[in-house]
Each structure stands twice: as C-alpha cells, then as structure tokens.
Amino acid sequence: MDLGDGLTWILLAAATLLGSSVQGAVGFGLGFTVVPLLAVVEPLAIPTVPLLLGMSLLLGTLVRDFRALDRRGSLLMMAGRAPGTVVGAALLALVAPHLLGLLVGAVLLATIAVSAARQAPPLNWRTQVAAGFASGVMGTAAGVGGPPASLAYRGQPGPVMRATVGAALLAGTVMSLAAVVLMGRWDWRHAAMAAILLPVALLGLRLSGFLNDRLTPGRLQAAVLGLGLVAALAAIADAVLHTVAGAA
C-alpha cells in the first residue's frame, strides 16, 4: 500500500478513531489498531506515529483525572521505564525494517496475553517498577506501552488508573521519542503523519465518553483485544510473506 493512496489514509483514520475511542475509555487501545496497520503500510513510522498520537490522548486523560493521580506510583513506573526504553531501543535497532511486522506482532501478542490476565498483580513498588520496565520495552520497540502499565493498576478506581498510568506513560513517551532521535530514526514526515491524524485521535477521545455510557469496560477491552489479536497475526503474516518473496 502507498501513503499517497486515499484508501490508506481512510484506513489509518478509521484505526485511529477506533483505537483512541477505546483508549479514552479503558486506558489503552490505540496501539492495537494503528501499529499493525503501520507495520504494513509504513514500518519506519513505528514507533514515532503511535507515540506522538498517544501523547495527545495521555494529556487529555491526565488533565481530566489529574486529582486522582498517585504521584508515588507514577514516579516508580517512570523509574522502570528508563531502562526499559534502552532495551526497547536495542530491539528496534536490531530488527530490519522488513521484519518489523514480526516484532510488532510479537509485542502485540505479549500485550494481549498481559491484558487478558484475569488476576491483577498486587500493587506495590516491585510491580510498579516492573510495569514501567515492560512498558518501556514495548512502547519503544513497537509503540504499544499502555497495557503493561495499565495491568499494575487493574482493580483500582478508573480515574486513579487513568491519571497515574497516563502520567507515567507521558514521561515514558518523551523518553522513547528521545531514543528514536538518538538512534537516527526520527523523520519529520512521520511527525506530519501524526499531525494529520491528531484531530481524528482527539475526536475519538471525545467519543470515549459515549462508549463509557453504553458499554462496560470489560466488553470494550474484550473487543479491542480480539481486534488486536487479528491485527497481530496479520502483521506477522505480512512480514513472513515479504521475507519469503524477498528470498525467492
């Protein structure tokens, strides 16, 4: 697919709208819809585009729920995010662009497994640091850092989870983008892509209230996890097909 193709932009806009709507309601979702599509149409836009789009959503949810912020918890997750960012950057540097779909698919499958866990881990400094580390690895490597961080606060009141995880992810996104720049992977064209899709992401954030009023968080999460599973397998299949075609 070509980024100059109107259909590609329609698909990217639809994926952004759906993912941001769900993310505003349950704390994650954008990575499950946008990242697999980017892995097919523009692999080198990962993780820049999802990270930049995610920042706008994180700011919106943080402002909305700021009074519920667990400051100590967010700082602990930030402490774990720093070394996780280094590991994620190393993975990103080691994977060839045509194999990025495999990395994205593997990260998505891992995050789906984490998100589908029925029992929440105990909330303490160890799990908070570990969640930050996993978020750093997955967020920097593939732009999907929300689910591991959200898992640490599963079972907590919604505003507490959204504000605390949002603050940690916002700081972590800055770390990951800094890693992208230091690796020489920053491209202003990808920043422009994010800017074009930003109004759609903000619209999705507004629509999240509509979803909250009509669907339970459990149903929303199940839907986005199912969609993420299909998208992960599609990204892996696309990477395998390109590898086989290149070797032929």
UniProtKB/TrEMBL annotation:
Membrane topology note: Multi-pass membrane protein
A single GO cellular-component term on record: plasma membrane
Keyword Oxidoreductase recorded: no
Heme in keyword set: no
Keywords: Cell membrane, Membrane, Transmembrane, Transmembrane helix, Transport
Transmembrane segments: 44-63, 99-117, 129-153, 165-184, 191-211, 223-245
Localization of this protein: Cell membrane
Family (UniProt): Belongs to the 4-toluene sulfonate uptake permease (TSUP) (TC 2.A.102) family.
Protein name per its UniProtKB record: Probable membrane transporter protein
Organism: Allonocardiopsis opalescens
Lineage per the UniProt record: Bacteria, Bacillati, Actinomycetota, Actinomycetes, Streptosporangiales
